[in-house]
Amino acid sequence: MPSYWQLLALVAPVFVLFALGALLRRTCRLTDESEAAMLRIYVNFFYPALILKSVLGNAALRDPANLLWPPVAGFVTI
Questions:
Q1: Which pTM value belongs to this model?
Q2: Residues 6+ apart with CB under 8 A from 60
Q3: How many CB atoms lie within 10 A of CB 28?
């Protein structure tokens, strides 16, 4: 079981990024235009890359039942 300090070390980078973003916003170095551009990059490039990385490296997709069942379940529930 991880100790308190190990958990803090895992979570701290997220809060550091939040604090950095708040600092950049308060000092007016991060404008609305730059924020919109970064959001477009994240949505159009990084998010699909994350999906591809997760799908291509997934061993569960080698089982044909895992490829057939989710579309059938989605079709039936709709």
A1: 0.58
A2: 66
A3: 7
